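Appendix B: complex inputs.
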Amino acid sequence: MTPTDTLTVTIERGPAGAETFAVPAYENQTVLDVVSWIQQNADPTLSYRFACRVGMCGSCAMTVGGVPRWTCRTHISKVVKDGAVTIGPLKNLPVIKDLAVDMDPFFDKWIAAEGVHHSGQTRHDPIAPIDAATPARVAADAGIECINCAVCYAACDTVTGNDAYLGPAALQRAWTLLQDDKDTGRDDILDAVSGAGGCHNCHAIGSCTAYCPNDLDPMSAIAGLKRETAKSFFSRGR
Amino acid sequence: MLTLRLYMLQRITALLMAPFVLVHLGVMIYAVQDGLSAAEILGRTQGSALWFLFYGSFVVAVAIHGAIGLRVIAHEWGGLSGVALALFTWATGAGLFALGARAVWAVTFA
Amino acid sequence: MIARAHPLRLAYLLHRLSGLALALFLPVHFWVLALALTDPAELDGFLHMTEAGVVKLAEFGLVFLLAVHMFGGLRLLALDWLPWTPAQKTLAAVATALSFLVACLFLLGAL
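Resulting structure:
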């Protein structure tokens, strides 16, 4: 395949400032392809992160044209304006170098939201049958396809203003576990999402839902947590 | 920064104020028709236990609601946190309540 | 900011800014009303000012802020607490805002 034109690509490299590259344009090219071309042909010191290239692993998210996106599944034609595009690291996370951010705060909050399995059984118990059609299971299924790409976390204005806020991904995971018949951590989850950084800090701005590459709806999941905790406020008194 | 308790307070005061705001807007539209005057306002409100209760509850609700709302903005946009944020919240709530209570008293039983 | 403008985000900004403006206006509002106690003549002076064009416009602004903040808030309550679909919520908010607007226009016209 031969290049048809040249793209003007500006890479925001954190404290090192922004740098502009001329990249050959191909008809079939993702944002990740463009970043990889720069790293392989123009500047081998450019740092970025990717693994699967097919939208499964959630490691290649970046800020593209001011919007957080998964770069491996974003065609460059979707984001280029007048032959130019700006690519930067995800917002709301510390930059390690260039386009690679430190995901630790994101995953720490995943745990802080009790986004872990709470088992009530042992391997000696029979496997509990799960009815895929119950409303709770349907609600859980709507949120479990999260690939941990942190696009929602980077898009969230509340995270920007409030360091302690657990963020859309972690809270959505807490919500799916709350709906899961096999999870026994209900009270722990409700307590974890009711604290100073919990679901009640969400202002329903909806950027998480607007930008989730998998079309998940964390905003509604967080609304579900608010409903459950509001109910428990009256029944448990906390 | 917003716990379940603050969230519930914010939502309950909001629910309480929705009908208050409608009545307040209605009275405003009605009252401005013939021009506002001190005598006109006082004629309606002075000595009235009903208006005292209405505006009294309104002031309590708005003091709580406004204090929590400004707390969120002070934290997210102003970077205030910890003790400073708590002080700010309480001072805002107390200030709004004091000013509002004084106004309600002035137009009803003073 | 502009790159990430979408309807709900603008609704959030409108709600926050209207709330902030109302909170800043309230102390002034309370202070003027309390003049009934301390200085009735000055209260009348303030109230006469409300007939001037600029102040009338400011009043309209306040009514607008109050209405916007209330309906924006009811929208949030519905979003949080009523397990409706998003489309139902948008329709309900639009219907409420429209009926309120019609009612206000009717009142202003009739009086």
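The interface with chain A takes residues 1-8, 11, 72, 75-77 of chain B (CB under 8 Å).
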